[in-house]
Design goal:
With 108 residues, the protein is mainly β. The protein has one domain (3-93): Nucleic acid-binding proteins (OB fold (Dihydrolipoamide Acetyltransferase, E2P)), CATH 2.40.50.140. Helix content is 4%, strand content 55%.
Length: 108
């Protein structure tokens, strides 16, 4: 799927997108837990999209990285679409293990 095809309130898989900016993480309390969140922006050859990073994802993704978002969740926030890994999805760096959604390769 390409960024131009992303719609709100749906799952989406975006492969090989570039992180073009990343804001400073913010920390807040919710339900007695300390949480971290960070806004970033990604692009492909069809457009740009806001990316929300939570918890450990913040330290794994940096500006300039090529990433894939597998089964991410898209929603509208403040009038703009944004994607996050959501509950079931994951964010992986391009070229890292798990970046492809194909079946596992066996060695031996």
């Amino acid at each position: 799927m390409k960024i131009k095809d992303v719609l709100g309130s749906q799952n989406a898989t975006l492969e090989n997108v570039e992180v073009i900016s990343k804001e400073e993480p913010r920390q807040f309390e919710k339900y007695g837990k300390s949480l971290r969140v960070c806004n970033a922006k990604i692009k492909d050859n069809t457009g740009e999209l806001n990316l929300t990073l939570w918890g450990d994802e913040i330290d794994q993704v940096n500006e300039g990285d090529k990433i894939s978002i597998i089964d991410g969740w898209v929603k509208e926030f403040n009038g703009e679409l944004q994607i996050s890994a959501g509950r079931k999805g994951k964010i992986v760096k391009a070229g890292s293990e798990g970046a492809s959604s194909t079946s596992e390769e066996q060695t031996e």
